[in-house]
Amino acid sequence: MSSNGLNSNIENSLAKFYERIKNDENINADFLTLRAQAMKLLQEDANLEEIVRLVGIDSLSDKDRLIMDTAKSLKEDFLFQNAFNEFDTYASLAKQYKLLKVILDYHNLADTALTKGAEFGSLIVPEFKEKISRFRYLEEKDLSQIDELGKEIKDTLLSKEVLHAQDEAPIFNLTDMTYLEKRGDN
Description:
Blueprint: H1 3-21, H2 31-55, H3 62-79, H4 93-115, H5 120-123, H6 126-134, H7 144-159, E1 161-163, E2 171-173, E3 178-180
Helix pairs in contact: 2-3, 2-4, 3-4, 3-6, 4-7
């Protein structure tokens, strides 16, 4: 069977599964939307990997780098499981949803900031990446920590003033998604 046929069969099986569980009170209504976005990002990442192999990562735009960074998080922090860890062997749908949501919310906020002129490097916060990577070892009773990080990411990215490449360029304020004329115009 071709990989397209296999993928199609898997998609059909998953569609039936998601149809059965969509009315479950433990499943958030936007779970399927998040899943579709994650699948799209992973596909875009696969396409970008070929470009990186041919001409290097420096040839990518900041948006493409963000896609690759998010896809890496999806692969390593969301899809990867450690069968030898009691908290990572199995993840409830609630845990899967919260982890997927925090990864994609981070991506969407950073993508919006890039569109408004932010620099890629200023949007990737190692502390957030590290916390996200540890969440797969989180006990089910502690899932609120994922929500807390989501709020912290949002607050941090929305409160950050991101400069353009030139010192004289206007400052982009993520709080209200506007450019400030000069420093001190808050």
